[in-house]
TrEMBL record:
NAD(+) binds at D38, D39, A40, Y41, D42, S85, L86, E116, R139, E173, K299, K323. Zn(2+) binds at C417, C420, C439. InterPro entries: BRCT_dom, BRCT_dom_sf, DisA/LigA_HHH, DNA_ligase, DNA_ligase_AS, DNAligase_adenylation, DNAligase_N, Hlx-hairpin-Hlx_DNA-bd_motif. Its cofactor is Mg(2+); Mn(2+). This is DNA ligase. Belongs to the NAD-dependent DNA ligase family. LigA subfamily. It comes from Streptomyces canus. It is an enzyme of class 6 (ligase). DNA ligase that catalyzes the formation of phosphodiester linkages between 5'-phosphoryl and 3'-hydroxyl groups in double-stranded DNA using NAD as a coenzyme and as the energy source for the reaction. It is essential for DNA replication and repair of damaged DNA. Residues 608-693 form the BRCT domain. Its EC number is 6.5.1.2.
Length: 693
């Protein structure tokens, strides 16, 4: 794995980078907000280190390198023993190199390693006096921290009383599990607060907040146990001699929740390979864990090995963090789509400015439901923290509220089902189309009745809903079986409307095959593809006997699409039979079937195409007038194809003719520049007169 480094080109860029990192670290360690995600922060810090290596005489005094918490925070309660940070490795090679340097330092190989989860929260020291929890201190700058004793009693896993009356300090990480984070944001927003962007920020903000009207629980995971100045000598000596794994076992016996006893149990390993094996195992577990981890901590287990390795001013030399790739990135929410599922559930989905997480490009993230959007106070244009681990569907954790510019727009909730137009049942958190499972039916019937398909006048979504609700129609063929009597039973259906609808259905029966095919809604066959298929095969029977190979003769159908069309047509057998039996036309006027499709060796070979637009690519632009005035764009395209041409929406060198009506703009200009033939609507109407509807 490579470790990306921000490129710093000169002293000014260096000074800016130092300022940015210090500001981000201050925000991160104080209230859990930060304008940078972890990757962006790490890259900048590495860039600073690279620049400082090359310009050691120009290092700024407030540079974050070599300092705990980037030098951003201070506290007023001194630590009895410095609370250090950890150095990082990012790959097996770097880890192997680290063990080699450790071996050199100790003068022998470390006897064994303890391998545990690196919990993604913030470090605290918990002081127990004779078994009573008396003080809680943040890490601060490592030398002194802030007193956060007000949080005592809100940290699961950190008892107020130990099982033995000992004086010790327990060190560990405070974090919010996924469930605690969700609960915290619910409570916080219910109190009018902004939701936290992620669990880490939530625990930092919560731990430091005093005098809040509410408390939200967090969890403590211990990873260190040490004597305090008041600890009795015998115990202090004993603790000093214990291996890390033994200390953790002791902490657990005292009643403290330790990192060792989580869903990622700590193991001890003796070889590099064993450690790396465990690193892989933990990395694989990560997506399923109920709390966030950002790596694995590997520690020389024996006290003697630790002592021999020693510590630097920022980090111990006997331990290392093997960082896992960040699973959270900040990006922007550009749109919200509303998709209707099979059961009618209307689910929002966030469209993101694409962002790379763990090597995958993320463009969508789930948003649960409208209540959740409101709770999180999400807005379009917001910077959002996106979380994706393993193959789990990416989710938006929350907006990064302090990055708001004021240009963010509210997310508009649908007022009608976006699929079928029915009312929405909003009584539950998950909104549902009132048609439930019938939603799909209403949508597909409305589509089939639409202007570009069967063009059944008087059959809009409202009427379709009425027919479905009355139980009169359960599929497309049922429409053509409707009787006058049945229609008259419906509300708001008088004699005239009934007769009009029956007449519209009679006309629909005569529509060309291309429109019938389109109305069936076979995936991958929209309007123009349906026309191509219909023209190619001429009859529905020919389409039904065509195999994938035969379908690939149609332009635009490749080896992937062909089999799925074959399967869907086969699934529609019964429906197509019933439509044909109801008198629906199943042929394409003017089309001649291909020789192969009719499976007749004596069939004549294709005759040359003598239609006026044969072989031509035609683009229509501007408003049509004269005989073409009433034609929709789709009907114009149908006309072009009937006359042997291919319709296209953009002008290129391949275009043969541009039909330019009133108000034609850039397409006309482009045609002129490219020297492409232009025709006015009237002129074009004459050219295709034989094919006009
Ligand atoms: S040991 C002297 N163990 O990671 C050893 N730290 O990036 C110092 N952390 O400051 C820490 N899980 O806040 C240790 N299992 C674990 C940890 C852990 C998370 C945090 C801790 C530390 C930071 C360094």
């Amino acid at each position: 794995m490579t470790t990306p480094v921000a490129q710093i080109v000169d002293a000014a860029a260096y000074a800016q980078a130092v300022e940015d990192v210090v500001a981000a670290a201050a925000a991160y360690y104080t209230d859990g907000t930060s304008p940078l995600d972890d990757d962006a922060y790490d890259q900048l810090v590495r860039g600073i280190a690279v620049w400082e290596d090359a310009h050691p005489d120009q290092v700024l005094p407030h540079s974050p390198t070599g300092k705990v918490a980037g030098g951003a925070v201070e506290g007023d309660v001194p630590h009895t023993v410095a609370m250090l940070s950890l150095d990082n490795v990012f790959s097996p090679e770097q880890f192997t190199a680290w063990t080699a340097s450790l071996t050199r330092r100790i003068g022998r190989e470390a006897a064994r390693f303890s391998v545990e989860a690196k919990l993604d929260g913030l470090a605290v020291a918990a002081r127990y006096t004779q078994g009573r929890l008396t003080r809680l201190i943040t890490r601060g700058d490592g030398i002194a921290g802030e007193d956060v004793s007000h949080a005592i009693g809100t940290l699961e896993g950190l008892p107020e009383k130990l099982d033995q009356p000992v004086t010790v300090e327990v060190r560990g990480e405070v974090l919010m599990t996924t469930a605690q984070f969700e609960h915290a944001n619910e409570v916080r927003t219910a109190h009018g607060g902004q939701p936290f962007a992620n669990p880490r920020g939530a625990s930092a903000g919560t731990l430091r907040a005093k005098e809040r009207a509410y408390t939200v629980p967090m969890t403590f995971f211990g990873y260190g146990l040490l004597p305090l100045p008041d600890t009795d000598t015998e115990l202090a000596e004993r603790l000093d001699g214990l291996a890390h794994s033994e200390l953790m076992a002791l902490a657990a016996r005292l009643g403290v929740h330790t990192a060792a006893a989580t869903a990622v149990p700590t193991v001890t390993a003796t070889t590099v390979d064993e450690v790396l094996e465990r690193v892989r195992e933990i990395a694989a577990l990560r997506a399923e864990l109920p709390f966030g981890i950002d790596g694995i901590v590997i520690k020389a287990d024996l006290a003697a090995d630790q002592r021999a390795a020693g510590s630097g001013s920022r980090a111990p030399r006997w331990a290392i963090a093997y960082k896992l790739p960040a699973v959270e990135k900040i990006t922007r929410l550009v749109a919200v789509e509303w998709n209707v599922g099979r059961t009618g559930i209307i689910a929002p989905r966030g469209v993101l400015e694409p962002v790379q997480i763990e090597g995958a490009t993320i463009t969508y993230a789930t948003l649960h439901n409208p209540a959740d959007i409101t709770r999180r106070d999400l807005r379009l244009g917001d910077h959002v923290m996106v979380h994706r681990a393993g193959d789990v569907i990416p989710r938006i954790e929350a907006p990064v509220a302090h990055l708001r510019t004021g240009d963010e727009q509210p997310i508009v909730f649908p007022e009608m089902c976006p699929r079928c137009g029915s009312a929405i049942d909003t009584s539950q958190e998950r909104w549902r189309c009132e048609q439930g499972r019938n939603c799909h039916l209403v949508a597909s019937l409305s589509y089939a009745a639409g202007r570009d398909q069967l063009d059944i006048e008087g059959l809009g979504a409202t009427r379709v809903i009425q027919l479905v609700e009355a139980g009169l129609v359960a599929d497309l063929a049922d429409l053509f079986a409707l009787t006058r009597e049945q229609l008259l039973t419906l509300e708001r259906m008088g004699e005239t409307s009934t007769d009009n609808l029956l007449a519209a259905l009679a006309t629909a029966r005569t529509q060309p095959l291309s429109r019938v095919l389109c109305a069936l809604g076979v995936r991958g066959t929209g309007r123009s593809m349906s026309r191509r298929i219909a023209r190619h095969f001429a009859t529905m029977d020919n389409i039904r006997v065509a195999d994938a190979e035969a379908l690939q003769q149609v332009e635009g159908i490749g080896p992937e699409k062909a089999p799925s069309i074959v399967t869907e047509i086969a699934e529609l057998t019964e429906l197509i039979d019933r439509l044909a039996a109801a008198g629906v036309n199943m042929t394409e006027p003017g089309a001649t079937p291909p020789a192969a499709a009719i499976d007749d060796p004596a069939a004549p070979a294709d005759t040359p195409d003598d239609r006026p637009l044969a072989g031509m690519a035609v683009v229509v632009t501007g408003a049509m007038t004269g005989p073409l005035e009433s034609l929709s764009r789709n009907q114009m395209n149908e006309l072009i194809e009937l006359a042997g041409g291919k319709s296209s929406s953009s002008v290129s060198k391949k275009t043969s003719l541009v039909v330019a009506g009133e108000g034609a703009g850039s397409k006309r200009d482009k045609a002129e520049t490219l020297g492409i033939r232009l025709a006015a609507p009237d002129e074009f109407a004459l050219l295709v007169a034989d094919y006009l509807p």
